[in-house]
Amino acid sequence: MKTNEIKLEDSPESKNVIFVGDISFTLWLEFEYWTEIEDTTNDFFNMKIILNDGRSYSLNVWTFEYLRSAQNEDKTEGEDGLGEYLIPPDLFVGKLDRPLIEKCVTNLIKNDELKEEWLDSEDDDIIADFDLLVEIAYDLSQQFEGVTTKDKRKGYATHLLAKSVHSCFALLKFFAESKFNKFSDPFIDFSSVASLARNLIELTNIHWYLTVDNCTTDEQELRLSVFDYHDSFSLKFIAERLNFNETGINILNNRITSLKDTIEKNSHFQSLNKNVKKMILDGKRSSVLTQFEITEKRNIDVEEFKGYYKLMSVETHSSPTSIGLLSFTRSYDEDWEMYSAFSYLLLHYAAAFLADLIKTTGEMWSFRFAKEQSEEVVKEYSSRLFKEQEVTGAKNP
């Protein structure tokens, strides 16, 4: 089936408001974002109807001519009984034309013909928004291909962004509605969802801790050195036990010695308590601050974070709680609704962390959003991450 190239600019017509009595609506039409259309009478597209009361409907739409093309395509490719039957779209129209489609939707509203099955659920919205966030993160990460910088913070920001994209693609494979999932009805492995969500959230916290937080020069240098030291220590541990090349192990030993010397001379390191210093030098901590300390420093609700973190952790590991939840699900929840609900809950929470990572990385490199919709989604989800300020009532920027 053919695909169409997407252009980045917003369609100004998508903001047109159409009134039908007391109801008004706007239309998002996929074809207005294509760079070219070969034949407006022979194509298909997706559209979204957004009502003024907050409801939105998503439809797959074909032209009448495309119905014949799809049937011929199935005959040629041997699908759907060689064209003997077709699963229809939600709506047929004469051509890809905004005024025509606005009239169609007006009639659907007048005649009360908007189907319940077209109505977007909250879960549909988060999948669409998370898909968009991942697209933005991926596009942003591509801007750094071949880019070199002497600024270590910028360098780490780009590496952590790229790592987050990989985690996101893996995470979305468990959600049937995602455009990045080729399976129509995948099995939701909640343990995997929890593990990937935790990985993504931890990564975004580390991104902020290493590259965004405004701390003293000594503390910043210590954070970067400890991160590199833990990396070298872990690689050495793996290499020695898996009998890797001795030359590589020697290189790691030299690097560890150099970084250890840098860390021990750092004035901020010298101010830390004895236990923290020991854990760092033993290679047991990759950061000076814990995930909870980073979260609190970011002005994120720590108690809420701890609740989500515990939920993700008990499923990441083979804990008694994870085994108990599985046992309950197999006995009393045949449709796995509890795991599904938990999965969407984590996706909502992780989306806020991802959005803030995108926002801060873009600001660091002075990048501007190509699409207004992208900027709005990133800002909206990023703002959800932070708790209300007690004095002003304003949210953390």
Order of helices and strands: EEEEHHEHHHHHHHHHHHHH
Shape: elongated
Low-confidence parts lasting 5 or more residues at pLDDT below 50?
1-10, 389-397
- Strand fraction band? 5-15%
The largest sheet has its strands arranged as 1-2-3-4-5
Task: Explain what the structure shows.
This protein has a five-stranded mixed beta sheet with strand order 1-2-3-4-5. It is elongated, with a radius of gyration of 26 Å. It has helices at 64-77, 80-83, 98-110, 122-142, 152-172, 190-212, 217-241, 246-265, 267-270, 274-281, 291-297, 302-316, 320-332, 337-364, 372-383, and strands spanning 18-20, 23-29, 44-51, 56-63, 91-93. With 397 residues, it is of the alpha+beta class. It is built from 15 helices and five strands. The model is unreliable at 1-10 and 389-397 (pLDDT under 50). It starts with 17 loop residues before the first strand and ends in a 14-residue tail after the last helix. Helix 4 (122-142) runs antiparallel to helix 5 (152-172) and helix 6 (190-212) packs parallel to helix 14. It folds into two domains: 12-118, no CATH class; 122-383, no CATH class. Strand 1 (18-20) and strand 2 form a beta hairpin. 57% of the residues lie in helices and 7% in strands.
List the main descriptive attributes of the protein structure presented here.
alpha+beta; 5-stranded mixed beta sheet; single chain; 7% strand; 2 domains; disordered C terminus; 397 residues
